[in-house]
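Whether sequence alone determines local backbone shape is best considered at the level of individual chains. For completeness, the protein is quoted in full, as a sequence line and a line of structure tokens:
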Amino acid sequence: MLIVDSQVHIWAADTPERPWPKAGAGGRNTHVQRAEPWTAEEVLGHMDAAGVDRAIIVPPSWEGERNDLALDAVRRYPNRFAIMGRIGMEDAANRNLVARWREQPGMLGIRLVFSDTSPWLAEGEGTGQRHWLWAEAERHGVPVTLFPMGRFALVGKILARHPGLRLCIDHLGAVGPDPAGATFKHIPELIALARFPNLAVKASALPNVSTDEYPFPSLHEPLRRVFDAFGPHRVFWGSDLTRLRCPYRQLVTMFTEALPWLKGDHLEWVMGRGVCEWFGWDRETASR
């Protein structure tokens, strides 16, 4: 069975030669997961130990709108990595990049994070403005994956306006663990969007929002509800490895051994086949 991680990060050090962008007037970006670099080779070592064949690199936000490290990793390990790249949403000139976006080696699509500080979120917020990215990505067949930060109504409007656009929501849309039990209160909103056939979901980074230990029983019921709504072809396993709070192999076996309802062909789709077909990554070139 081909195992493909739908989200990992790599990054370089913050140096004068290659500085990270600052977090506004407050100074350094505070969202970095580790100050020291995470290299492609370090990720590959974890992948090999856990039995993971491939991974999609998502360049992290603290490095800014750049994809150079991910493109270099694909150049050196073309059968192991692909990319959901970053693009500047606030620069209208970037719309011209979308038509040839997937001509970059290993580039599968675009990754976004919704934020209250993003002016381009005027799309769908009652202003009448519509951002250029959605139509351009739809026109040129460029998939988009995003972390919605609770803005499921906005995602629904985008899906309705652009039925040919392939969208994918990260981490089941979960923001973080809530000891009061509200971690997955958004699941009905997410499930309501399953009616759009152009939407998929990444079941990624889930141990980080759990309230228990392996095999994370608090995750099984919401995951089953999402799986039942979206089906095996539109739910993709993933880790967000660099902030994973359990051994990488445990995240594999949680899906392959601890979910009695996820077996056979359905398991194959969730663990790798589905994400490759959704984003157009040739499965025949995989090697470990």
The chain has eight helices and eight strands. Confidence is low (pLDDT under 50) at residues 24-28.
